[in-house]
Amino acid sequence: MAAGDRPTHRLATPSIGCRWGALAAGALAGALLAACGDEAARKTKLQFWALGREGEVVQKLIPAFEAANPGVHVEVQQIPWTAAHEKLLTAFAGRSTPDLAQLGNTWIPELVALGALEPLGGRLAKSRVNPRDFFPGIWATNEIDGEPYGVPWYVDTRVLFYRSDLLARAGVKRPPRSWEEWRNGMRSVKALPGGEHYAILLPTDEWAQPVVLALQAGADLLRDGGRHADFKEARFRTAFEFYVSLFAERLAPPLGNAQVANLYQQFADGYFAMVITGPWNLGEFRRRLPADRQGDWAVAPLPAVTETDYPGVSLAGGSSLVVFGASPHKDAAFRLVEFLTDARQQARFYTLTGDLPARAAAWDDPALAGDPKLQAFRTQLEHVRPMPKVPEWERIATAIAEAAERVILGNQTEDRSLDQLQIEVDRMLDKRRFLLDRKSGGGGR
Q: DSSP alpha helices (H): ranges in 227-292?
């Protein structure tokens, strides 16, 4: 285009009217943004700490909560399980705890002892959360001296996974219901022809198995309100002897977890025919066992000391939701607890994670009700007991496993090992005794 051919209209320079229109539009947009900012500022912001994969998946449930609670915005912080315990204690010491968090059930006594958690009895009395809607043994893990400090979110426990074809070949017609039937069945499996194999895998560095047997025998593990160890008591000794005898008879290999080459492959190969494990392995067995072995395994509740008491007791495990005492938004935080423990949300959370619902009504969902392997867990969850509610429990549990391992490996006799266990755990409880005695006005042990 030649220089003299320029158009007479001037698109590059708006008219005064247009400029005023643009300014007005900008002012309106700014006002709207300011209003939105004010609205966001007026919202209650909840800090929610969730652990592991649950911290990632729970974010899919939050939009529905926020839609039902338009004045609340939830910020989820995902924390690795390996770092969570230390981070919670550091946050408490630094007065920077979140509004609510997910806790492993066995951590609740420690945080209650520190005074970190909000008692929930008053709120529960006015809420939709009814303790009778939860498995009794699981609910009990959240109560300290009769006061609830958490609401179960998801649960786990231990049951018996077994090779149904190998048990049938050994003449074992049903999952064992008593210790005697169990031992006899293990002997029959061990006697099957073939290469080296065992009846059951009981990793020697796991505490759950000897503790489960002790609970089944009626042992309390601690006495005097958790002031003293109680490992020389007859019921604990009965369970301890039964557990150790399974290795003495070579029904179980004397291996720790690091010495197990491949749990799933060895189970498929028949190196062992049974294992006591939890719900996380349902998905793993379905993924990792060969297709031609998928019809050869089943799940059953644990045996009891006698058939009359079947199913036997197992561990009450899982995670709960707690509100921190320092939260300025306790009411909103508890509403989120109510939402996440609602039966419909529990069923949805199961489909997203595979975590077993804590609320019994959620088990009526077709995704759970139609799975016979899951129903074995459902039955077992009616027969669980909480661990001793002392902050030192995790150290005590490790000491129990170590005491059994000393005997299994031939390093100590049962008497010496139980004596050592009693002394070690009493030392762990020294501070607890001192604090409890001072609180009660007592002067000694």
A: 234-248, 263-269, 280-288
Q: Determine contact, residues 153/358, Cβ cutoff 8 Å.
A: yes
* 42-157+316-380 and 159-314+389-440 agree in CATH topology: yes
Q: What is the dihedral of CA 89, 92, 98, 100, to 10 degrees?
A: 70
Rounded Cα distance between 275 and 300, Å, is: 11
CATH number for domain 159-314+389-440, candidates 3.40.190.10, 3.90.650.10, 2.40.50.140, 1.10.1740.10: 3.40.190.10
What does the pLDDT look like over 239-296, one tens digit per residue?
A: 999 999 999 999 999 999 999 999 999 999 999 999 999 999 999 999 999 999 999 9
Residue 264's CB: how many other CB atoms inside 10 A? 15
CATH superfamily entry for domain 42-157+316-380: Periplasmic binding protein-like II (3.40.190.10)
Q: Which of 245, 378, 253, 242 shows the shortest CA–CA distance to 306? A: 242
- The bridge status of strand 143-144 relative to strand 147-148 is antiparallel
Between CA 86 and CA 70 the distance in angstroms is 33
Over residues 114-134, the pLDDT tens digits come to: 999 999 999 999 998 999 999
User: How many helices (H) and strands (E) would you count in the chain?
Assistant: 20, 16
* pLDDT of 200 higher than 90: yes
pLDDT for res 15 = 44
Alpha-carbon distance of 101 to 321, in angstroms, equals: 6
158 within 8 A of 223, measured Cβ to Cβ: no
What pTM did the predictor assign? 0.88
Q: Residue 96 and residue 92: Cα distance in Å, rounded?
A: 6
**Would you give the distance in Å from CA 163 to the centre of its chain?**
26
DSSP assignment of 38-75, as one string? HHHHHSEEEEEEEEHHHHHHGGGTHHHHHHHSTTEEEE
Where exactly are the structural domains of the chain?
42-157+316-380, 159-314+389-440
Q: What percent of the chain has pLDDT over 70?
A: 89
Alpha-carbon distance of 111 to 126, in angstroms, equals 24
